[in-house]
Design a protein that fits this description.
Elements (H helix, E strand, L loop, with lengths): L1 H18 L3 E9 L6 E2 L3 E5 L4 H17 L4 E3 L6 H4 L12 H10 L4 E17 L2 E5 L7 H5 L4 E5 L2 E16 L4 E11 L4 H18 L3 E2 L1
Parallel strand pairs: 2-10, 3-4, 3-5
Antiparallel strand pairs: 1-9, 5-8, 6-7, 8-9
Helix pairs in contact: 2-6
Length: 217
Amino acid sequence: MKKLILLFPVLFIAVYFTACTSVTEISGTWKKPATAAKKYSKIMVLGLSGEIVNRSAVENAIVAKLKTYGINAVAGTNILPDSFVDSDNNGKVDNENKDIFSAKLKDQGIDGVFTISLKDVKENERYIPGTTYYTPSTVYNPFYNYYWRTYNVVNTPGYLSKSTNYFLTSNFYNLSDDQLIWSAQSETINPQSLKDFSKSYSATIVDDFVSSGLVRK
């Protein structure tokens, strides 16, 4: 019985931390004043990163979330290969291809662009103190017996908790006049995986974008 009692706190802790997922918080948003809502034919989601796997995962998560609102969207990786904007593979876009880039988007029917850029990554470390669980013995129920006996004590040791937080800027451009009309700063707290990050970030950022009232379904 004692072993079973000791086991429950350990199982609770294991399940709790296994179930944890990341949280994305919006730290600030901006909307261009006096901008009327518009129905866009096709929005391109474009991650500003050379890491194609990460970029594709996040872009596709945003596209999927936009589509749940009835908004037509496409991932930039499906339209623009890295070689198109960085033909010499030096990690920088080719300035001479700017006009070609613009023509490519028009040819694809893109009239709005949702960009994603990573601004900062911060690692945090904090100490989590141990916890003591008290389990009274069922044998010594009377007060005097209890008084002369001690509780069974279960201690979980303290530990260091490390987390990595990601800070991103999300922008939306109306390509009909090439103007920025919406922007948001966000922080995603300690994602456990790329999938976890993409799910948390896309859900929060798209909800905020749609609630701005700039895009009609």
